[in-house]
Amino acid sequence: MTTLWDKSNRETLVQTLAVVDTQTFPRRLLQHGMVRPGKPAFREKHLGIWQSWTWAEVNAEVRALACGLAALGFGRGMHLAIIGDNRPRLYWAMLAAQCLGGVPVPLYQDAPAADMAFVLENADIAYAIVEDQEQVDKLSEVKALYPRIGHIAYDDERGMRHYRQPGLLSLAQLQELGRAHDLAQPDFFAAAVAAGKGEDTAVILYTSGTTGKPKGVCQSHAALLAAGAGGVAFDALSDAEDILSYLPMAWVGDCLFSLAQAMVAGFTVNCPESGDTVQIDMREIGPTCYFAPPRVFENMLTSVMIRMEDAGPLKRRMFHHFMAVAKRSGAAILDGRPVAARERLAYALGSLLVYGPLKNVLGLSRVRVAYTAGAAIGPDLFRFYRSIGVNLKQLYGSTETCAYVCLQPDGNIKFDSVGLPAPGVEVRLAANGEVLVKSPATMSGYYKRPDATAEVIDADGYFHTGDAGLFDSEGHLKIIDRAADVGRMTDGAIFAPNYIENKLKFFPFIKEAVAFGHARDRVCAFVNIDLEAVGNWAERRGIAYAGYTDLAARAQTYELVRDCVEKVNLELAAEALMAGTQIHRFLVLHKELDPDDGELTRTRKVRRAFIADKYAPLIAALYEGKQTQYIDIQVKFEDGRSGSSSAELQIWDSRTFPALGQAA
Questions:
Q1: Residue ranges of the chain whose pLDDT lies below 50
Q2: Which residues lie closer than 8 Å to 507 by C-beta, 6 or more apart?
Q3: How far apart, in whole angstroms, are the C-alpha atoms of residue 262 and residue 278?
Q4: With the C-alpha atoms ordered 575, 578, 583, 588, is the resulting torsion angle positive or negative?
Q5: Are 194 and 16 a contacting pair, CB within 8 Å?
Q6: What is the pLDDT of residues 234-290, one digit of tens each?
Q7: Whole-angstrom Cα distance, residue 147 to residue 125?
Q8: Separation of alpha carbons 274 and 285, rounded Å
Q9: Could you give the residue ranges of the DSSP H alpha helices within 446-592?
Q10: Which sign, positive or negative, has the C-alpha torsion 212, 214, 219, 223?
Q11: Which residues is 244 bridged to in the sheet?
Q12: Cβ atoms 156, 133 nearer than 8 A
């Protein structure tokens, strides 16, 4: 690895960087290779051992990959599919494509072959670099639908010994081709990097397809680096940071943190061994900067509550006592606000006995700043983490804005807002309350969709986010819901389903929820239980069950869920705008909502229109006052087969409460 870097003619690269700016990812990579050559750039846990690559070594690896792709005919303007879990070599493949003026197109690694076919065809993919045998098999299957894929390189060679398809090779073989190409044409690489421009497309990220087919979002080098630089400066991130890269590479959040910010600040990106070992690997690395969507923080909290259920009486009492202390004063202490000496002392004792060990178990002990984005986080969940001393902040943005619109400054955090407009970003509200954004991080456009681009970017350059929001008196932006999802009850009350659903999902027993109420006289809801949390709860009470469907149908489970629903109703009753949207009736679905069944996007956002159509008989039963309803629906199994899932579902009523200020 080092030999190739030594042979790459450092003087030529220095001269290249001297005459051009660093507004492309490859130039940033070269800069880090010269400024901090011996500092760790990437780590990966493999077979239980952490392996590390310095910036100099990464430069050599990327150069070999880029020259190997060039030897296969890949060049400027072409698109390279990237498919797999977070692996250093897949990030290097993205950078290698960019070095040649090509465009990486990361795909969701858990998507079935049929879903991949649409993106591959839409993005005109002929080259792909994938993680392992599973992804090679998917692309082989896709070839029947989309035969243009001519070259596939794979990282993990396990199981690939007998594969002999034309155009198939390992990454090691690809790099050998690249080294030979580099020796034959020593000036090629530097010239290719120098030809890149900031306005060139750096990546195409496909939207989650909540309301239709995914669209390819074209983000330029300049836009992504502007978002990365803005975030790095805002929270004073440095090359000393460690981040854990475990979220899908196809998601804009990972692109921002694991690529854009890493290329701006020069910090270390750590890749876990697998999705199953993320929590263990996180404790070993101890990231200083951490990013996760709300569902990850929800799952963490669920695991904590399950462990406390299994703890002894003394530990449970101590936990709940100090959590009450944290709820009263933890967030204020974190923000540097005045707190009584007695409360500070109680909180310090709680840090020693509860908060510190809890953060260590979660892998958050070294976290200096943590972010969440991708969906609204419930205020209660937000409050929990900040109360135990985790500097959790909300980001607001979208794929089209590089996830860079609003940020929360230290000492000025509000649980019900997403913060202030980020540096360099203009935010205003349309007449209907939709959030409009003008930013250097706005996309160039949707790939091959000028019509769709024109619909969301107006003549003044503002991107129409599709979110409904409002500003408070201090200029903080509050996101109510998706503009298309915000509705009105028949009495005129605002109906914001996501707001209600987030309150439900704060409870560890509820994994997913879907609320209905637009143009109706009352709100009803579907609920998915969390099998691990409710299963643990049931086992402690001697309740036997055969699986998810059986447990979901139990009367005891319904009583547990009803208790959660009624607590949410009590909270909603205390909020003037939301008091009329309390949940009157609910049911527990007999199956979990699943992206493979089209009910959720790959980023686990609810596809409301699809669910409303698929489960129309259940919605009708909720509003017709029925006590049970039979449902039979089509589902997809993990092996790709289709089948049906049917059940007779119970429907329960829940207690509602008078609005604040009204007589009981």
A1: 1-20, 663-664
A2: 564, 567
A3: 20
A4: negative
A5: yes
A6: 999 999 999 999 999 999 999 999 999 999 999 999 999 998 899 899 999 999 999
A7: 10
A8: 14
A9: 450-456, 497-505, 531-540, 548-553, 555-573
A10: positive
A11: 270
A12: yes
